[in-house]
Amino acid sequence: xxxxxxxxxxxxxxxRKEKIHQEFKKHNIDANLKTFYxxxxxxxxxxxxxxxxxxxxxxxxxxxxxxxVYDDQAAYSIMACKHHLIREIPxxxxxxxxxxWELLKQYPNITGFWDKPEYMKTVQLGEIIFGPMYFNIxxxxxxxxxxxxxxxxxxAKNAGIERVNEKLFTIGRDGAYSFTLxxxxxxxxxxxxxxxxxxxxxxxxxxxxxxxxxxxxxxxxLARYTVFVQSKRDFASKRLGLFANGPTLSVVNEGFGLKxxxxxxxxxxxxxxxxxxxxxxxxxxxxxxxxxxxxIPSPKEYLLDWxxxxxxxIPSNSIPTSFxxxxxxxxxxxxxxxxxxxxxxxIAIILIISYLIYLxxxxxxxxxxxxxNLKKGERFLSLALTGGKVYAFxxxxxxxxxxxxxxxxxxxxxxxxxxxxxxxxxxxANLENFNNDVINARQGKIQKNISQxxxxxxxxxxxxxxxxxxxxxxxxxxxxxxxxxxxSKEAEQELINARQKAEESDKMKSAFLANMSHEIRTxxxxxxxxxxxxxxxxxxxxxxxxxxxxxxxxxxxxxLLLKLINDILDLSRIESGKMDFSFKSCNLTDLMKxxxxxxxxxxxxxxxxxxxxxxxPIVIETDALRLTQVITNFINNASKFTHEGYIRxxxxxxxxxxxxxxxxxxxxxxxxxxxxxxxFERFNKLxxxxxxxxxxxxxxxxxxxxxxxxxxxxxxxxxxSCFTIALPL
Length: 729
Hints:
Elements: E1 2-4, H1 16-26, E2 35-37, H2 45-59, E3 67-70, H3 72-80, H4 85-88, E4 91-96, H5 101-105, E5 110-114, H6 119-130, E6 134-139, H7 143-158, E7 163-164, E8 167-171, E9 177-179, E10 201-206, H8 212-220, E11 226-230, H9 240-243, E12 248-250, E13 262-267, H10 270-285, E14 296-297, E15 301-305, H11 306-311, E16 324-326, H12 330-333, H13 335-373, E17 390-396, E18 399-402, H14 404-410, E19 417-418, H15 419-425, H16 428-442, E20 448-455, E21 463-472, E22 477-484, H17 486-535, H18 544-576, E23 584-587, H19 588-600, E24 607-612, E25 619-622, H20 624-641, E26 645-654, E27 659-666, H21 696-706, E28 710-716, E29 720-728
Helix pairs in contact: 1-10, 2-3, 17-18, 18-21, 19-20, 20-21
C-alpha cells in the first residue's frame, strides 16, 4: 500500500507508481501496488484523520503486506487516526520533515527516514551563488508553521546568528521561542533593503497572516537583494515561488522541479526517497524486524533546477561542479564531451573524406591513363578546379561546348557556341593563330597543342586564356582544358616592369654617380688648378687683377662645390625621411616681403624684381625655412636665365577651393615643352655652361610633396617661365 499526502493531480506524482514498481523489480519483487491520496490541503486536521481511518477500513479486506507512507501529513494522519491495522502491518515512511516523535514511540512497527530541513545549508547554497542577501523565511502561525520556525531558529542559533528581523530571539527549554518585539511585522523601513547587505540577514515572512502591503512588498521586487526560503508546501506557499520577484529556495523537496518557482536547496531528491524507502521495505519483506531498524536522516545534496537557473539568468560559472542540476539539457550537461566528440568526429570525417578523395583521384587517374592508351576521347572532361578557372571544353561539328562553371564565370548564357560566335570573342591579333591551329590539326600536323589567345566573352574586356587540347583525327573532335591565365600574364608583366624598373634604377644610379663625379670634379679642378697657379707665383708672374680674378674663381667654385654637397645631403635626408620639418603658422605676406627685400639688391641691372601680393594676408601651416628655400631656388634659376625684363613673385588663394598658389614668373629664355618634365630630374641642366648642380629643382619637388602640394610649370621658349607652388590652404 502506498499513501501519498497530496492530491492525485500533484505534478510530483507523475510516473511515481511506475518508479516504485520498477525499484521493487530490481529486488526481484513483483509488487501489486495500490495508492491512496490523502489530499491534505483540502481537509482540516480532524477530517484528515477520519478520511485516513475510513480508508484503512476499506484496505483491511485487501490485507496489504507493507505500507509505504510519504511526507509529513500522511505520516502524521496514519498514526493519529489510531486504526488497529497500523499496529499489525509494517509501515515505512519517507520525506517526513517533522516526525511526531511522541506518536512514533507508540508504534514499534513504524520506521523510515527523517528528511530534516537544513536551513543553514540551504542558505549557504544561496550565498555561494548570490553572495550576502536578505533571506526571507516563509512561515505561518499553524502548528507545522511554528515547527518550521523553531527548526530554523535552532539552526540559526547553532550557526551563531543572534538576530532575525533585526530582533534578538531566544529559545526556551520547552522549545518555545520569543523575540524582543513581535516577530511577524510588516516592513516599514524599506530603504534598508535597497542596498545589497554586506552580511547575510534573515527575516520571517508570514505567508498567511501578513498584511497585504507587507506581503506584496516582499514579493514585488522592490525589496532588492532578497532570496526566499520555503519551509513547507501547502495551499498558501506552493505558488509563492512563482509570484516572488526574487529566487526561491526550499528546505523541503515537495514542489522542487515541478514548475512551482523553486530554484533549489539542500534536499533529498524524490528518486533517492523512492530508492531508500523501497530498499528498506524489501529488507522488511525478507524478514528483517522493524523494531531493529532505527529512524535515520535521509542523505541530502545541493540540488538546482535548470529552468529556474535560466529564469534568474544565473551564470553557470557561479555554480560549483559539486551541485546537482536537474532538467539540465543534454547539450548543456555534456557540452565539453559533445565538443570533444564533435571535434574527433570531424577529424574522423575529414580523414575518411580525404581517403575517399585519394581513392577517387587514384581511380580517376587510372581511368584517364586507360582512356589515353585506348584513344577514347568520347568522355567529356569536367575538371573545373575551385578558384582555378580551369574548364573542360569540346569542339566538334564547328560547335564549342564548355563546363557549366565556365558559363557562370564568363558571365554568358549557357549554350553551344558556333565557330563564328567564338571567333567574334577572340582578339583580332590572335585570330590568325587560332585559325592556323585548327587547320594544322585537321591536316594531321599536330595532335596535341597549347595555345594562348585573348578572348572577350562577357564584353568587359579581353583576358588571356590558355587552351590545352588533343585532336582526334578520325572523329574530328578537339577535347581539352581551357584556363584563365590573366593573372599569370599580369604577374609576368609586373615582373617585366619590375626588371625594367630595376635596370632603369641601375642606369639612373650609374648616371647619378657619373653626374655627381663630374659635377664635383669640375669645381674641384678649378680650385686645384688656380690654387696651384697662385702657389707657383714665383715661377708665373701674376698681376694684381689676375690674382684677384683667380681668387674669385676659387671662391665661386668652392661655394659651388659646397652647395653641390649640401644639395646632395639635403636630397638624401629628405628622401630617407631624416630631415626634420618644423610646421608653424606663417604669415605668407611677411614671408614674401622678406624674400623680396633680400633678392631685390641681388638682381642684374637689366632685370627688375617685382612683388604681387593680395591686400588681405593669409596665414598657413608650413615650414617657413624650407618654403623660403624653394622660392629662393626659383628666383635664383630665373635670374640665371633672365637677361632683361622682370622677375615677379607673389601668391593668390581661393577660400572656396582651400588652395594657395605661390608663383615666380620671369621673362627669361623659357623652357621647350619637351624638356619641361626633365628639369625636375637630378643633375639635369638645360644649359651645361650655366652655374649650378642640377639638383635644386629635384630638392624643391621633394620638399613640396612633403608639404602635401605640387609644383606646376608653365613655360614657352623665348617668352619666359612661371613656376607655381600649389599648397592646401
